[in-house]
Amino acid sequence: MQDIIKKADVLIEALPYIRKFRGKTIVIKAGGSMMENKEVISGIFQDIIFMSLVGIKPVIIHGGGPRITGKMKEAGIVAKFVDGFRVTDAKTMKIVDETLEATNKEIAKHIEELGGKVKTLSGKKDKIIKAVALRHKGKDMGFLGKIVSVNTKPIKDALKDGAIPVITPVAVGEDGKAYNINADLAACDIAAALKAEKFVLITDTNGILRDESDENTLITTLKKKEAEELIERGIIRGGMIPKVKAVVDALKKGVNKTHIIDGRLSHAILLEIFTDKGIGTEIVK
User: Fold this and answer.
1) Any idea what the CATH number is for the domain that residue 56 is in?
2) What is the per-residue pLDDT for 10?
């Protein structure tokens, strides 16, 4: 009986948050590493389906980093990164495009098997993301793209139809060529263009740590200025840099609140959005 009462208490705690976010858009970026753990990704998708069923509008942007690196290795191509951004030559771009498209279909199939309604969307084919070549710190990054505009119509059409949009972070350039977009930054700009209530970035870490070797140094709440200072001081570094820059940019562009959470924790999204305490790192204006 006590277990039943506890479950009822959880639902009661979630109720005001369901009311608050009903009808609102929440953009979720799922890292490519999440796809390699079926149990973890199933929990994430169950959370997202729950959100959709209670009237919230979730939008998924996914990565595919580990799979892309693996495919590059098979092709004899050495992966190169600058501050967490992948240097993308023509051969790498072809691998990126093919791998992300396959991942997109796999995600959609998984959500459907769990009972969710889904719509697969390509940043390139559906002309959602337009980009130009990005130079990072004066370096030629090949077909790594910088977003210049986001077309939200295909996303909004899917949401109106009650579907969960799942989007690949590949863009089309004015030259008609495909460009690789960092998935964190793609999610940021899509969240801003949709005027999302929240932007949730799912990772395989606890959140932002003051000491990356010590999980007990988790920072639960940060203001965007403090986050930028941590990057300048070198406390936030490597692959976490584009993630933090993405959520900070999302705040600057009008998203109300951003979160970096650990997708390995069972039902991490529900715990972050529908409970008083939450988990991970919350970055606010």
Assistant:
1) 3.40.1160.10
2) 65
